[in-house]
């Protein structure tokens, strides 16, 4: 069943960052393997995969709940705790155990390098098209302090008039205050703004609670029959933003 876009052309668009605009191109397994090699350790691939996939599950089970994104130190604590949990599962090298805290920190810090991040294929065409239409844009994201650095090095910083990052404000999604900060910076009213993100609870419900119009980006076609518009590509925003589309989305 189709869920309609808002009837009015938006005055501005706000985007989530992770899994909406960009994603990590280096898995936790590969990152850990590279760091261990540099320190002279060699661990069988199956053992490393098992351990660091457990680290991923540790982090994924926690990052959607709790105050992890409110401060840089909390973001670091979440991820390094997950990495420590994974590294502790490596039984092949007992001598490694004393180094686990330092190795966990090294994995976390390595992800600040833009080389480990990539834009989705639809991001540049969508942003270029929206800029050509003159639509103001911004980012609202649960992230550590590296986000501004990352989007600069990925070449998209100039597309956005504001970047609101949870760890800098002490607010995290779905708190409406995070969204309203970006709306205020754009000089808009909440009902003039569309917000695009990849999670229902944090992005859709958070944006709606602030009075914005939420849109879910679902590139893998996992969601159907939601009470908000669902798009499979950011390029799908161009026609309705330009006011030239059948203002509904076939799911």
Short structural summary:
The protein is an alpha/beta fold.
Instruction: State the domain count.
Output: 2
The average pLDDT score comes to 93
Q: And the CATH topology of the largest domain?
A: Rossmann fold
- Topology, number of strands: 10
Helix-residue proportion: 25-40%
Rg, rounded, reads 20 Å
Sheet with the most strands, sense and barrel status:
6 strands, parallel
CATH architecture of the largest domain: 3-Layer(aba) Sandwich
CATH superfamily of the largest domain: HAD superfamily/HAD-like
Give the strand content: 5-15%
Taking pLDDT < 50 over at least 5 consecutive residues as the criterion, the unreliable ranges are none
Q: Compute the separation of the termini in Å.
A: 6 Å
Alpha-beta classification:
alpha/beta
Q: What would the keywords be for this entry?
A:
single chain, 251 residues, alpha/beta, Rossmann fold, six-stranded parallel β-sheet, two-stranded antiparallel ribbon, 14% strand
Description:
The protein is an alpha/beta fold and 251 residues long. Helix content is 40%, strand content 14%. Helix 1 packs across helix 2 (45-60), helix 2 packs antiparallel against helix 3 and helix 3 crosses helix 4 (100-110). The chain has two domains: 3-23 and 116-249, Rossmann fold, CATH 3.40.50; 27-110. It has helices spanning 28-38, 45-60, 72-87, 100-110, 123-132, 147-153, 166-169, 176-186, 200-209, 238-241; strands at residues 3-4, 12-15, 22-24, 117-119, 137-141, 162-165, 193-197, 213-217, 230-231, 248-249.
């Amino acid at each position: 069943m189709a869920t309609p876009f808002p009837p009015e052309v938006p005055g501005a668009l706000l985007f989530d960052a992770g899994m909406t605009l960009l994603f990590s191109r280096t898995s936790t397994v590969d990152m850990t393997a590279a760091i261990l090699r540099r320190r002279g350790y060699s661990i069988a691939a199956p053992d490393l995969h098992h351990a660091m996939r457990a680290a991923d599950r540790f982090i994924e089970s926690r990052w959607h709940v709790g105050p992890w994104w409110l401060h840089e130190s909390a973001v670091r604590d979440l991820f390094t705790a997950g990495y420590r949990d994974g590294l502790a599962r490596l039984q092949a090298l007992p001598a490694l155990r004393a180094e686990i805290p330092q190795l966990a920190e090294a994995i976390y810090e390595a992800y600040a390098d833009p080389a480990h991040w990539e834009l989705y294929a639809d991001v540049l065409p969508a942003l270029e098209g929206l800029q050509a239409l003159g639509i103001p844009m911004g980012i609202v994201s649960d992230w550590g302090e590296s986000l501004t650095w990352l989007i600069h090095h990925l070449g998209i910083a100039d597309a956005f008039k504001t970047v609101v990052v949870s760890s800098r404000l002490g607010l995290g999604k779905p708190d409406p205050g995070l969204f309203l900060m970006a709306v205020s910076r754009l000089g808009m009213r909440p009902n003039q703004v569309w917000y695009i993100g990849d999670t229902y609870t944090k992005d859709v419900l958070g944006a709606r609670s602030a009075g914005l119009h939420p849109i879910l980006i679902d590139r893998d076609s996992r969601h159907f029959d939601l009470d908000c518009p669902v798009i499979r590509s950011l390029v799908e925003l161009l026609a309705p933003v330009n006011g030239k589309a059948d203002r509904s989305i076939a799911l």
